[in-house]
Specification:
Helix content: over 70%
Mean pLDDT: 81
Number of strands: 0
Strand content: under 5%
Shape: globular
Structural class: mainly alpha
């Protein structure tokens, strides 16, 4: 008796046998084909999502004052970083497990998500009140509590884990697309109408609930409460180092915002928030590859050679995108401020440039933690996070007091270097053949001639105009693209082959 193919599979792909329909469609259809198609789907989705977010950020920044943006920054950092405690690996552990009854496995994970989210909600209410008290700004209370309405919405989005584990990326992304679209429309509309930072609050809540309702209707499993103490122990063993890593990230973010508010005021907090949001764009290829390969990595976690091959190629793709874009941010931010954002953002100029270079360097080994999570060895993630946290608190905060936003950027660059060194140590332990200099240099080389040409051209600039800035950006893009094609031709040809013939050897099942 035959079964129909999954909704997002091509007609020529055989359907998995019934006994594998829930447990292991990845094995049935082949990791190669799923990974190849998944990269393309995730690339289109995440590129569109991030571009939409970047456009939204620029539009809102044009209608909001730096102080209004600072209020949003305080809330995002306070609640967003606190959210790292909630994201302690429930979904990652669910993807990694290979239980016989996958519906029961999902319901167990969903139960833990409810419990963790409930505890997080109570903690977040307390933190919002303390934040308003700490900063002496009662206006933070109402929007902060309103943002907590997203928590139950994200609980109801848990069925996405199932499609992710199955590597049914097209179906997953179709369900996810509603949230950013609704959020964009609501946020921009309210910002233009003069709603200030409330435009961002309402837009985020509206998008989260719109996405939750769509995902809930498509859930392949019944949502049920299934509490088992043995499951809790398994998840806690996997997740506690991730929680520790989250605490390290929270301390970095919160100390930066608290010090920024005290030393530089809300306008300084707004500058830090904008700089962080702009450079997030550099991480997109790494996210695309990491999100696509994680289920496949879990499936071959006991095959070291395949793990190393996938890591090396995936990280080079991330470097290929992140390094040129991070350097471009450093080169062209002055033009962005002069011809786009306006003079009120000039104090943030140096910080954005430094963050751009940090983002470029941070692509080195950026997907290392996926491989440790796939092996259920999450302690190294906690170690690197805590070491980076100490480096940040010891340098970035004092330098902010001494030299404002520029000093803060320099301190963050030092902390990032410490974090990169830490991940390299663990990468060498996992992959003894990993040569960090050879691996990184090959991906960084194409950016060097492009940056040098732009800097040389600027020596002959007269009066700077938007047209001249666009022309230089085009030169930078063309030179980088040509150099990348020359240096990385074998890898790019291989990736192209994957997309033409998804049966190509990305990973072997």
């Amino acid at each position: 008796m035959s079964t129909s193919p999954p909704p997002d599979a091509p007609d020529d792909v055989p359907a998995p046998p019934p006994e594998f329909a829930d447990k292991a469609p990845v094995e049935a259809l082949g990791l190669r084909r799923r990974a190849a198609r998944g990269m393309l789907i995730n690339a289109v989705f995440l590129a569109g999502l991030t571009s939409l977010g970047l456009i939204k950020g620029f539009i809102v920044a044009a209608f909001l004052s730096r102080s209004d943006y600072g209020v949003w920054g305080l809330l995002v950092v306070t609640l967003g970083t606190l959210g790292w405690l909630k994201q302690i690996g429930v979904s990652d552990r669910y993807v990694q497990q290979q239980d016989d009854d996958q519906e029961l496995a999902f319901q167990r994970a969903f139960t833990l998500e409810i419990l963790f989210s409930g505890a997080f909600f109570v903690l977040a209410v307390v933190v919002v009140g303390l934040t308003a008290l700490l900063y002496g700004r009662s206006e933070l209370l109402a929007p902060g509590l309103a943002l907590l309405l997203t928590i139950p919405a994200y609980i109801l989005q848990s069925p996405l884990w199932v499609f992710y584990k199955r590597m049914e990326f097209l179906r997953q992304r179709r369900l996810e697309v509603l949230e950013p679209i609704v959020g964009f429309v609501v946020t921009v509309g309210l910002a233009i109408a003069g709603a200030g930072y409330w435009s961002l609050i309402v837009g985020m809540v509206a998008g989260a609930w719109a996405g939750a309702l769509a995902i809930l209707q498509a859930s392949p499993y019944q949502l049920a409460f299934r509490y088992e103490s043995g499951t809790v122990r398994q998840y806690v063993s996997f997740s506690w180092p991730l929680a520790v890593a989250g605490v390290g990230g929270i301390i970095v973010a919160q100390s930066s915002i608290i010090a920024g508010s005290a030393v530089l005021g809300l306008a300084g907090v707004g500058s830090i928030t904008l700089a962080s949001s702009i450079v997030l764009y550099t991480t997109q290829v790494d996210q695309i590859v990491s999100q696509t390969l994680y289920p496949a990595i879990c499936a071959v976690a006991d095959q070291p050679e395949l793990l190393f091959e996938s890591f090396a190629k995936a990280n080079r793709l991330g470097l290929m995108w992140g390094v040129p874009l991070g350097v471009a941010i450093a080169l062209f931010t002055p033009d962005l401020v002069d011809f786009g954002l306006g003079d009120r953002w000039r104090p943030a100029l140096a910080l954005i440039q430094i963050f751009g270079l940090i983002a470029a360097a941070d692509q080195i080994g950026a997907n290392w933690d996926d491989y440790y999570r796939a092996r259920a060895d999450t302690r190294p993630i906690a170690v690197v996070s805590i070491v980076t946290m100490f480096a940040c608190v010891a340098t970035a905060i004092p330098l902010m007091i001494v030299d404002g936003l520029t000093g803060f950027g320099i301190g963050m660059a030092f902390a990032a270097a410490v974090g990169i060194a830490g991940r390299i140590v663990y990468l060498i332990r996992l992959f003894p053949a990993f040569g960090v200099l050879r691996h990184s240099t090959q991906a960084i080389l194409p950016t060097i001639p492009a940056a040098v040409i732009v800097l040389v051209l600027r020596q002959f600039d007269g009066h700077r105009t938007p047209a001249l800035a666009i022309a230089e950006a085009a030169v930078y893009l063309l030179v980088t693209g040509a150099a990348t094609l020359y240096v990385e031709r074998p890898l790019l040809r291989e990736v192209k082959g994957y997309l033409r013939d998804p049966r190509g050897p990305i990973l072997s099942a």
